[in-house]
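ok new one. same drill as before - structure tokens go in, u give me an amino acid for every spot. 454 of them this time. try not to just spam alanines like last time pls lmao
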């Protein structure tokens, strides 16, 4: 094949951009070369960074700077506002590309099977995150009438949700939050936020830095019950083997022994409390019932039969994300991933699905930090290039890059481009400058398309 290898990547979040970067850094980028098109259903790129990271985490959002440099490469094109499969199907992609990589991530909430999930005031964390991050496809308002709120889960998403609920709207105003989010948070009545984990401090999945940041707000008093500081042999082994787990446990220990402060909003971190039921009254959340657990020696826990009813009026579950099933690809409902072997998608008979690959959370599940997707991308790209070298890629029927743009135009797809992102970025920054902020995020899809020159 004398022409460049043509690769389509579906999903322009970190996983997809890391895959593009791995392709550009491969030997194949020298000869015969690579040509990469990223397809993204949102009008703007960056996926989880733009729509899944809390606005008061500019350090993490700084990852965009590195991703930006990748997308600036001339071998890469961006097609935003293009949905798989309604705008482009797998069969379409096979016509134009030698290989297709799916990096569609995970943006929906994983289910939690306890009674009361259907009550008004019971929310998924992913939905709340989408709202405060200005996702164009969610409602513009959010009900924030509850004075006491429960958050289920002890990962970083749970911390984000709890922190946003416990902070004041004015604390968040210097960030990029859109006007509708600031207005909504001004009406927030929460003064107590309770975070629940069924295991102990050594098993919490918080990042040490994100945990410590809870205590930086002048309005949030973080409270840990000394009775929740407990370790068994398995927990001690975890602390010895995992530096981050040890740092988290040490921070929680320090908070548990300090004197109470007088900050107006209280954020309680509860351990050894397993959610059993969301209590309802007239169709609305009226409380949360938990069972006290105890360590079993291995770091796992067992129930004690002692139950507590907590006075809360809203419950947010932050127990993990799940990926959506993709047409024309197999899907494991239990793990929420596409079956694969080192990134090669597996057909029903366990053979490799020709020229189709996965990377990121759709490949390994929604675990780990953003940077961990680099390893996924490297593995997947290595398999793709091996298949190409071995002649296992059938080749695109219409490899001319102009064939794709012509196809989208014939379909009437209003797609955005990388140049369009620069236009939208400039507009958002100008909105921010007018208010003394770095940027103000545009929410409405139509506005995004217009300012992107779609």
């Amino acid at each position: 094949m004398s022409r460049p290898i043509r690769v389509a990547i579906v999903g322009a979040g970190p996983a997809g951009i890391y895959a593009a970067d791995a392709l550009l850094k491969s030997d194949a980028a020298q000869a015969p070369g690579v040509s990469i098109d990223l397809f993204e259903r949102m009008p703007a790129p960056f996926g989880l960074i733009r729509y899944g990271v809390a606005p008061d985490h500019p350090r993490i959002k700084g990852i965009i700077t590195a991703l930006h440099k990748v997308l600036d490469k001339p071998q890469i094109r961006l097609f935003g506002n293009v949905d798989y499969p309604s705008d482009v199907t797998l069969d379409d992609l096979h016509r134009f590309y030698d290989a297709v990589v799916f990096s569609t991530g995970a943006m929906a909430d994983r289910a939690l099977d306890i009674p009361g999930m259907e009550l008004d005031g019971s929310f998924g964390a992913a939905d709340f995150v989408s709202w405060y991050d200005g996702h164009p496809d969610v409602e513009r308002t959010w009900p924030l009438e509850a004075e006491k709120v429960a958050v289920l889960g002890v990962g970083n998403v749970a911390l984000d949700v709890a922190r946003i609920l416990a902070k004041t709207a004015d604390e968040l105003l210097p960030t990029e939050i859109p006007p509708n989010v600031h207005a909504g948070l001004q009406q927030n009545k929460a003064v107590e936020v309770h975070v629940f984990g069924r295991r102990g401090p050594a098993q919490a999945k918080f990042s040490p830095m994100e945990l410590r940041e809870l205590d930086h707000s002048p309005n949030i008093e973080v409270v840990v019950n000394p009775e929740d500081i407990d370790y068994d042999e398995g927990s001690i082994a975890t602390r010895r083997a995992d530096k981050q787990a040890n740092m988290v446990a040490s921070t929680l220990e320090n908070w548990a022994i300090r004197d109470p402060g007088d900050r107006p909003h209280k954020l309680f971190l509860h351990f050894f409390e397993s959610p059993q039921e969301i209590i309802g009254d007239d169709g609305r959340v009226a409380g949360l019932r938990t069972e006290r657990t105890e360590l079993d020696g291995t770091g796992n826990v067992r129930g004690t039969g002692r139950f507590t009813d907590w006075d809360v009026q809203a419950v947010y579950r932050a127990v993990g994300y799940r990926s959506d099933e993709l047409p024309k690809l197999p899907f494991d409902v239990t793990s929420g991933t596409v079956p694969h072997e080192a990134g090669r998608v597996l057909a029903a008979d366990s053979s490799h699905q020709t020229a189709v690959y996965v990377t990121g959370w759709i490949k390994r599940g929604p675990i780990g930090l953003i940077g961990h997707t680099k390893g996924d991308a490297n593995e997947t790209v290595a398999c793709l290039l091996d298949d190409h070298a071995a002649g296992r890629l059938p080749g695109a029927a219409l490899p001319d890059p102009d064939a794709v743009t012509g196809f989208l135009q014939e379909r009437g797809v209003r797609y955005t481009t990388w140049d369009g992102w620069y236009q939208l970025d400039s507009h958002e920054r100008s909105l921010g400058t007018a208010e003394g902020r770095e940027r103000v995020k545009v929410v409405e899809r139509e506005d995004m398309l217009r300012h992107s020159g779609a």
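The chain has a mean pLDDT of 95. and btw Residues 5-106+323-415 form a domain with the Rossmann fold fold (CATH 3.40.50.720).
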